[in-house]
Structures are given as structure tokens and as C-alpha cells.
Design goal:
single chain; 203 residues; alpha+beta; Rossmann fold; Arc Repressor Mutant, subunit A; 2 domains; four-stranded antiparallel sheet; three-stranded antiparallel sheet; 7 helices; globular
């Protein structure tokens, strides 16, 4: 059965293009013109549904992207965007929604055993501090999903650390030094500039 996709946008040409492309890829569409902000829509939707949400956002409007992600969006794609990228992110969001929680997450040579709190790269065990593992665990429970700085800080350190982004940068750097073949060119823990981080989707 085809997945049903609701498209909400205030640009008629975007709606026309998405209707053609998504129907061509086998999706069933509902099209809506909005009368409110994307952030408000996400926040309201999250009160009654866990359906995946992908925000299409204007390039450079990072504050709005972060607000939408914190309000419950699963991902964002910046305008202008390539339809292949949008379809790939849509497929990934639908896979995450349908997939059961995994006790073991594998991305390339990185293996994260969530139940036994064990991490290895290329079969070699990696020792992590408790905070490093908590941060990696949050990312691993949402593989491929963009998590904002604020969301990660709240999950790992608690609500009082929502603005302490320097903590997050320090621990991400420490994780990359331990896990990445080349920390300067990370392949596992990816940065979304101005928004947050994601663990690369399992291969």
C-alpha cells in the first residue's frame, strides 16, 4: 500500500512540482495551503500523532529550522532542493517510523550495543565516558534523524542545560576522536550547520 503524504506549502509552484514528483514515485498526496507557521503545525501535530514530518525551509533561516525541529519535526530540507534528496529523506523518515527499536546499531564499522553499553569500531572495543555514551545512545536511537543542539542537551544533561551548547561541541569532538577514522572528516556523527547533529543512517 502506498504511503500517504501531506504536503503543506504556501508556494503553488512548489505544490505542483511535489505533486508530480511524489506521485511519480508512488506516493499518495494530500495538498494543503497553510494559514499558520510550520512550527505551529509541528507542535500541534505532535500532540496527537507521531507521523514523520519533514520541513521544507528557506536557506539561511536557521532559527526557524531549529524551532521546527524542537517542535517535533523529524528532518528538514532547504529550498531550493533536489527532488532526489527530498525523496531519499522521505524514504529514511518512513523507514524510521516503521522500524522497531534496535538493541544494536551498526553504521559502517561502528557498532553500538545499546543494551550492553558496548561500542566498537572495526571490531576493536572503544571506551567511552558515561556522558559520551549517553550522547551516542541518543543519536543511535534516532539513526539518520537530525537532533537539535537543544534536544541533545536536554536528553543528555537535563533541562537546565538547554543553552550550554559548548558542552555538546566538546563531547561531540571527543566522540569523533574516539570513533572516526578521520575526525576532521566525520562519517558517523554528522553536523547540520546551525541546527544540530545526526548519526549517519545504517548502511
Amino acid at each position: 500500500m502506498s504511503a500517504r503524504v501531506l504536503v503543506v506549502d504556501d508556494e503553488p509552484q512548489i505544490l505542483r512540482a511535489l505533486r508530480t514528483s511524489l506521485r511519480g514515485a508512488g506516493y499518495v498526496l494530500d495538498l494543503v495551503l497553510p494559514d499558520g507557521s510550520g512550527t505551529a503545525v509541528c507542535r500541534e501535530l505532535r500532540t496527537w500523532s507521531s507521523a514523520p514530518v519533514i520541513v521544507l525551509s528557506v536557506v539561511g533561516d536557521e532559527a526557524e529550522k531549529v524551532a521546527a525541529l524542537d517542535a517535533g519535526a523529524d528532518d528538514y530540507v532547504t529550498k531550493p532542493f533536489g527532488i532526489d534528496e527530498l525523496l531519499a529523506r522521505l524514504r529514511a523518515a518512513l523507514r524510521r517510523a516503521d522500524a522497531p527499536a534496535e538493541a544494536v546499531v551498526e553504521v559502517g564499522e561502528l557498532r553500538i550495543d545499546l543494551e550492553n553499553r558496548a561500542v566498537s569500531v572495526g571490531g576493536e572495543p572503544v571506551q567511552l565516558t558515561p556522558h559520551e555514551f549517553r550522547l551516542l545512545r541518543v543519536l543511535a536511537r534516532n539513526p539518520g534523524k537530525l537532533l537539535t543542539h537543544g534536544a541533545l542537551l536536554r536528553e543528555v544533561w537535563g533541562r537546565g542545560y538547554g543553552d550550554e551548547s559548548h558542552y555538546l561541541h566538546v563531547y561531540v569532538s571527543q566522540l569523533r576522536r574516539k570513533l572516526e577514522p578521520d575526525p576532521a572528516r566525520p562519517r558517523y556523527i554528522l553536523t547540520e550547520p546551525g541546527a544540530g547533529y545526526r548519526l549517519a543512517a545504517p548502511s
